[in-house]
Amino acid sequence: MKAFLFILISLLLLPSAQAEQVRLAVAANFLATVKVLAPLFEEQTGSELIISGASTGKLYAQIINGAPYDVLLSADQKHSQQLEQAGKVVEGSRFIYAAGKIVLWSSEAKPLDKDSIAGGDFSRLAIANPRTAPYGQAAQQALQNMGLWQAVKAKLVQGESIGQAFQFVATGNAQLGLVALSQVLNPANLYNRQHYWLVPEDLYEPLAQEAALLAHGRDNATAKQFLQFLRSDEAVNIMRAYGYH
User: Fold this and answer.
1) Are 106 and 171 a contacting pair, CB within 8 Å?
2) Which numeric CATH code is attached to 101-203?
3) How far is the C-alpha of 157 from the C-alpha of 135, rounded, in Å?
4) pLDDT in tens, 133-190
5) Under DSSP, is residue 195 helix (H, G, I), strand (E, B) or coil?
6) CA dihedral of residues 221, 225, 226, 232 (deg, nearest 10)
7) Structure letter (DSSP) for residue 69
8) What separation, in Å, do the N-terminal and C-terminal C-alpha atoms of the chain show?
9) 7 to 2, 15, 19: CA distances (angstroms)
10) Residue 244: which of 141, 121, 51, 100 has the closest Cα?
11) Which of 47, 60, 157, 190 has the most other CB atoms within 10 Å of its CB?
């Protein structure tokens, strides 16, 4: 009888235990930041965040094809809007949680500016794939608006995501990279955090990053709670420390 009661109680508790898990689809540029935010949220709520990071384009494809994510933290607005149109986002749940910036970066501690690209004194320049990564698209726009796209095209090495582009530079496979400011400012960046060139924001379309409650998480109260947490002063201050505004 005791065994029966234990099984019955366990089954009754199972739905709430599942509701305490939230599956996050996180754009690669925000991965380091969300890994700082996650323990704070988990400690406050007793919930568990399961984080998957990739380029926004790749996450979009996964969600369209039925990946069971509850929350999307996109690197742009376009993909979340398209997902809403496809019925994959809960209507009215989208909001801008951060705005990112791109920088020219080298793993070596040395001053950088536009001339570091124009001078051509490098063999590889890393960017994220413009077709799948909003930060890669921003990098392409900046290079085009500086009149340098054709000049550097043969030297480009494209990462699957902004995370991979950063790794190309960090490991020396590229001497320069147009990466996310948040990656450079990340305390886990053991390379150069002091020297980088902040690319003028009028050279690329704003990197307004949208959060959204996905259809899979419609009934997940903890997913909604996490989206509220993203708007809190505590979360906003951490995002600012990582270069978002």
Assistant:
1) no
2) 3.40.190.10
3) 14
4) 999 999 999 999 999 999 999 999 999 999 999 999 999 999 999 999 999 999 999 8
5) coil
6) 170
7) -
8) 59
9) 9, 14, 19
10) 100
11) 60
